[in-house]
Specification:
Layout lengths: L2 H47 L13 E4 L2 E3 L1 H16 L4 H7 L11 E3 H5 L4 H4 L8 E3 L2 E5 L8 H10 L5 E3 L1
Antiparallel strand pairs: 1-2, 1-6, 3-5, 4-5
Length: 171
Amino acid sequence: MDNNELLLDALSRILRLEKEVEKLNQAINNMSRAQTSSNEQNSINSVITGNSQPSTATRDKTKYFFDNKCFTKNRLVLAVVTKYVNEKKDLNLQELKTEFDKSLQGSIGVVEDYEIAQKRNDCAVRFFVNKDELIYLKDGIACVCSQWGVLNIPKFLKKAEMLGYCIEVIL
């Protein structure tokens, strides 16, 4: 084969591949539309039946890579706060609450005094309270909020970045 034939053959193969890619993209778009339609129908059915439980199919399960480990959203927050406390050593609760202020998480806040958190009926659901998850400070024990989602995690990620922590998002 001479150079012209080789070029024509290569161009022909490229065109075939581009057409296949186009078909695959269309199939992906159609599947995505069908899934969105299905999720919308599930939401409508939930409202009609009164079952407003979130669909596990639409739940965000993004993972984060930090300090050579992979974490879910809430475990990432626990790891960052724990690392921060370990690096700063002599922190008290107020200093920690100032650094990780309530606006990062929402109504519960990022950290809370363990004794105050224990007074909540939903303490074990809202906070990390296992012995190895507690934060030991110079003036007491704190616990980290476990309630993190797509709406509040971006603020925390930005704060962690401002503190110099490198966090990689894993989809």
